[in-house]
């Protein structure tokens, strides 16, 4: 497949600066692109690659006015490039169709129109699955669970009993939703399990990556708000509430009963203690250790997490510790020499 740069610009509502007749045959990242391919530039740190890339053209923001090769100016380069990728995709993904004969279906099952269920799926009693939802092979759906319309559940996903999944939810391979929260009481020196009888509610348009664990609440609900996106290998403990349109990046761990607001970003490997609140619009940097609540629209980093500017100051001081040690060691020697010289002579 090939298109002119001008045709692509019309498709993404951008403006060509340069030769609109350039032929584009594919898409790639700015470092990997070759002649005939289109790439994009969204992160300012990659601006030097404008002159280095072998791509035939680049999708940029409107702030980029000129370059050594043709560009398409857009309001949102990442979104525009995502649309172009769809034009050059190798082919539509072939999802399962119909209900495979190896599927085990419980009693009282309520299936909507055009539901597809792959091989060796187990669905227990009183489950409801909405129109056009797709469940890949080897997945498990526990009893009395509800799944909305247009859901896409990939292979080896486990959704336990009494869980509610919204519309247009995507759940990737190996994820477990509704597993028991980690609740134990020490009785006579032994850890006794505390029953976890709550549930999990996943809102509409949530994306959940591979090998994520979302624990059921102890009594009430663990909630993931609509539009939230969760990366791979995330742990969300019992009774956690995540607001709408938040981003949770890979390997984040959220302890029980923490409340996370709307439009929050938790970067990779951040860890949050339990029973705290993260305000709307807050950003938690990668590997931050959050030990207390964070106000809305606050950027924190470090361990323990503190406002980012303060964390940078602390880190700068830590980097200077070897030099400070030498200075203090030198001062100590001088003080010792002064003390010797100041001692009265007998």
Structural account:
- With 346 residues, the chain is of the alpha/beta class.
- The protein folds into three domains: 3-88, 3-Layer(aba) Sandwich (Udp-n-acetylmuramoylalanyl-d-glutamate--2,6- Diaminopimelate Ligase, Chain: A, domain 1); 104-308, Hexapeptide repeat proteins (UDP N-Acetylglucosamine Acyltransferase, domain 1); 313-346.
- Helices cover 16% and strands 29% of the residues.
- It contains five helices and 39 strands.
- The strands form six sheets. The chain has an eleven-stranded mixed β-sheet with strand order 10-13-16-19-24-27-30-33-36-38-39, with helices on one face. A ten-stranded parallel β-sheet has the order 8-11-14-17-20-25-28-31-34-37, with no helix packed on it.
- Strand 5, helix 2 (49-52) and strand 6 (57-61) form a beta-alpha-beta unit.
- The longest helix is centred in the C-terminal third of the chain and has 22 residues, at 321-342.
- The protein is flat.
- The N and C termini lie far apart (99 Å).
């Amino acid at each position: 497949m090939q298109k002119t740069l001008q045709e692509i610009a019309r498709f993404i509502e951008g403006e060509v600066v340069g030769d609109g007749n350039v032929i584009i045959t594919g898409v790639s990242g700015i470092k990997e692109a070759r002649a005939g391919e289109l790439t994009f530039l969204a992160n300012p740190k990659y601006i030097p690659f404008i002159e280095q890339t072998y791509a035939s053209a680049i999708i940029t923001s409107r702030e980029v006015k000129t370059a050594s090769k043709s560009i398409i100016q857009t309001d949102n380069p990442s979104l525009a490039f995502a649309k172009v990728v769809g034009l050059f995709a190798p082919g539509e993904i072939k999802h399962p169709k119909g209900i495979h004969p190896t599927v085990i279906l419980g009693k009282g099952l309520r299936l909507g129109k055009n539901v597809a269920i792959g091989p060796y799926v187990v669905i227990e009693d009183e489950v409801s699955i909405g129109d056009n939802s797709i469940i890949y092979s080897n997945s498990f759906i526990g009893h009395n669970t509800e799944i909305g319309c247009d859901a896409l559940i990939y292979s080896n996903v486990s959704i336990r009993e009494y869980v509610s999944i919204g519309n247009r939810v995507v759940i990737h391979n190996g994820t477990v939703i509704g597993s028991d929260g980690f609740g134990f009481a020490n009785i006579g020196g032994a850890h006794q399990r505390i029953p976890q009888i709550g549930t999990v509610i996943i809102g509409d348009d949530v994306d959940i990556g591979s090998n994520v664990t979302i624990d059921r609440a102890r009594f009430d609900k663990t909630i993931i708000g609509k539009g939230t996106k969760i990366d791979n290998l995330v742990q969300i403990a019992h009774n956690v509430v995540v607001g709408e349109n938040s981003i949770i990046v890979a390997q984040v761990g959220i302890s029980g009963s923490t409340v996370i607001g709307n439009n929050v970003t938790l970067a990779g490997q951040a860890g949050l203690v339990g029973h705290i609140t993260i305000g709307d619009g807050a950003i938690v940097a990668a590997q931050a250790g959050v030990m207390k609540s964070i106000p809305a629209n606050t950027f924190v980093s470090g361990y323990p997490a503190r406002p980012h500017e303060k964390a940078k100051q602390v880190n700068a001081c830590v980097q200077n510790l070897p030099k400070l040690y030498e200075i203090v060691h030198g001062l100590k020697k001088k003080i010792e020499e002064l003390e010797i010289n100041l001692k009265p002579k007998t």
